Amino acid sequence: MKKITLQLIADELGVSKALVSKALSNDPAVNEVTKETIWAKAEEMGYRMKSSRKTIPASRTGNLAVLMPRAYLDDMEYWGKVIHGIEKELANHSFSMILSSIDISLSPKEGLPSSIYEKKVDGAIVMGHLPDSYIEALAATDFPYVMVDANLLESSIDHVLANNFLGSYQATNHLLESGHVKLGFVGDADTSWSFRERSRGFEEAIRDFNRKNSSNATAVTVEGIGVSGTGMYVAAEFAKVLSRFVKADQPVTALFCANDLTAFESLKLLSDWGISCPGNISVIGFDDLTLTEIMSPKLTTVRVPKADIGSRAAQMILRRIENPDVTPEHVLLSTQLIKRASVGTLDKAQP
């Protein structure tokens, strides 16, 4: 096996051997972007580096805060994978992660961890639906942060999300192509930006399908279930609203649910009422939680790249720390439709 030398790395990058040596020795005369490039190439080529070479500048703590509403601790099936992606990416850059769950009933001064105000972390990744007052408090401290799947849409803040619109558009098309022309969207679209985009994708898919096929597919919205900074909620009237649409003289034959949890709740009610899936009605979820693969029927859903979202958020905050004035990014990561057993063709779905 060919031995990897400093000269070989320099030749690959088109730089001098001296620059490679300085970068791998963490020489402060070499800027951080160049160091990262050289470290990455050295690791890719299999060069043995001493861990001390990849150290954090003395002006930094080497710690990053990850902030999330406390209620999200009950949904670690989703957020745990995002956190894993963050932690893995930060480790590649010799940073440590400090997870802080926030009681959003408190004011930002009381709720934000002391590490923020005391500058014991170099930046923060804000996950989910923290109140706007918390984001404003972070901005007021001139503290670097990025957002993950948040409700606040601000062009000046780095933000990474799944492409909720295209994910729901593709899922709805799958229902339409399976012969379903009476569809229902399950979820309160105004409770989160993600739900709103999924609702928009659902509506656009139906509109485009009708125009291209001279069809008359129709849609209803089943409200009373959603997400917030305090977690999932199911309103008392949800069952009544769902019942009205699935037990009508001309019932909906397919449901697109704003996430897997709303699909689980809907399927439980449908089962209680003796309405089988996919025999009487087809159902699609969104997120691809583990239960979707082991339930009966296995749930067709839209897979969100949770770990990749976390990894991308970590890259974004490190970029922001290194270059505070760099142009903000809004990144949408692609989703994937996972076809399982909960969608039938129309002739199978009808009673």
From TrEMBL:
Q: What InterPro entries does UniProt report for this protein, alphabetically?
A: HTH_LacI, LacI/GalR-like_sensor, Lambda_DNA-bd_dom_sf, Peripla_BP_I
Identify the residues that the record assigns to the HTH lacI-type domain, covering every copy: 4-58
Q: Does the keyword Repressor apply?
A: yes
Q: Which UniProt keywords apply?
A: DNA-binding, Repressor, Transcription, Transcription regulation
One Gene Ontology MF term: transcription cis-regulatory region binding
PANTHER family this protein is in? HTH-TYPE TRANSCRIPTIONAL REPRESSOR PURR-RELATED, LACI-RELATED TRANSCRIPTIONAL REPRESSOR
Question: What protein am I looking at?
Answer: DNA-binding LacI/PurR family transcriptional regulator
Q: Which organism is it from?
A: Paenibacillus endophyticus
